[in-house]
Amino acid sequence: MKKKQLYDISSYADEIYNQPYEDTKEEKIENALRPSKHLSHYRLKTIISGPIVESEIYPVWKSKRYAPSKPAVQKKGSSIAQRNLNEKNSRKRFVRLLNANFTDSDIWATFTYDDAHLPSSIDEAIKEMQRYIKRLSAYVKKHNLPKLKYLYVTEFNDDDKEHVRVHHHLVINFSDRDTAERLWKAGGRKNTRRLQPDDFNLEGLGRYLTKGKRRWNSSINLVKPTVITADSKFRSLRQVERMLTPVQAEEQLRKLYPDFTLLESPKVYVNDKYGGYYIYTRMRRRI
After folding, report:
1. Tens of pLDDT along 167-192?
2. What are the tens digits of pLDDT across the range 9-47?
3. For residue range 71-111, what is the model confidence (pLDDT) as tens digits?
4. Where are the alpha helices (DSSP H) in 37-121?
5. Three-state SS at 55
6. What is the value of pTM for the model shown?
7. CB of 271 within 8 A of CB of 19?
8. How far is CA 98 from CA 106, 211, 229, in A?
9. Which residues contact 101 (CB under 8 A, 6 or more apart)?
10. Which of 84, 140, 154, 159 is the most buried (most CB within 10 A)?
């Protein structure tokens, strides 16, 4: 017998389940509590990015036909909704790669252009950054340093209403700030800084760098975040209901993740139309 194909909504679960449980009216909570016959079980998803761990608990549906639709399909202005979802997921990927690959031994840089080298398009600006990366990679190879890893963001706005001069932000596993600045050949400002992780590691920097109209690129040798899914922890709605208060949720998560410290109280969201819950929290590996 052919195994039934379940439907995973993890790429947009946090868009569908966006009503905070504690702020939801009682009658809507009752709808969320009502189990759907089309809901298969709950999935525990763990994303490990360096020292940071994210935990998601969300419903898996028996088929796509009955599962919540993506926001772009769900409401008017679908192209805007889809773009917002794409940008949100892109930011998540950037932050996770940042946390998984870089430490306080590395640096981040900002490079601008003088008038003589100013690119006329974002594609030209990216080509200039790629030429810079080649010069830096050649230096690394010549001096037998670890192979270059990088993430860079290019901001370029051709909208006359917003005068943003093209510039780049670059994160690299390279510690020689003087050399990093010297190899930029397009004039303008050259500013390098040591990375300074906090409790959430480099998330704050990642969110800052990806804010607004920006395009990012990365080296192909970056370590990808580790993603682990488990379907045996929460087979029923009742098991998830035991995690609806912060105290209960924290107690359960400490059992699930004994080697990590909670960075925040777990966030519980509901959707009274489809029923069920979405629980999210972030943790940090104990040193």
Report:
1. 999 999 999 999 999 999 999 999 99
2. 998 898 888 888 877 666 556 666 666 778 888 899 999
3. 765 555 557 767 777 888 899 999 999 999 999 999 999 99
4. 71-74, 78-101
5. strand
6. 0.88
7. yes
8. 11, 15, 22
9. 50, 149, 151, 173, 222, 223
10. 154
